[in-house]
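Recall that a protein's primary structure is simply its ordered list of amino acids. Everything else, from secondary elements to tertiary packing, is in principle encoded there. The following example makes that idea concrete.
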Amino acid sequence: MARYRGPVCRLCRRLGEKLYLKGEKCYTPRCPFERRPFAPGQRSMRRRKVSDRGLQLREKQKARASYGVLERQFRRYYERAVRRTGITGDNLLRILELRLDNVVYRLGFADSRAQARQLVRHGHITINGLKADIPSHVVKLNDVIAWTARGAESEFYPVAQEQAKGRTLPSWLALDLEKMTGRVLAAPVPEEIGAKFDPATIVEFYSR
């Protein structure tokens, strides 16, 4: 499955905002964005004015980088959001939030979405008792996310349990910390997501 394999901290510097793509490292002084809070490449003393289209593109790139989605798949999510009733930007946010790798991250099983993606790809996660190894799988209401027997025996499992204890859970998810299982209670609430991008601006970008 295609994904971005380059240095993710470079994405934050290019987009001019910390997107917390490396988990715990982003909260320490070792974060490259803290040490070099400017765009990568040759620096110019001349300030360039960014057009409206450029600002819209930047918001889209922030969304793609945040969730680890490439352009073709992101475009499909947008088209799916347009077909649904309601506000397109909110629909897009809900689709992205219901990706399996994001739900694993939100439950606190992983320190970042990239780490959550790896857990899923390595076959450590189940949905309703069946092993799920596709990070882009969109979970549904009342789906139960748990660990496989192999995942529960891994060295990372106790680390994940400790991580989950300190994670603030969104209202649309429930977590049984003892069994390390989560359940989707409702659709994600856009106001609770705290997105680093503006979904309405992304809709404007694709609407032209």
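Residues 61 and 70 are 9 Å apart (CA to CA). The chain has two domains: 8-96+194-207, 100-184.
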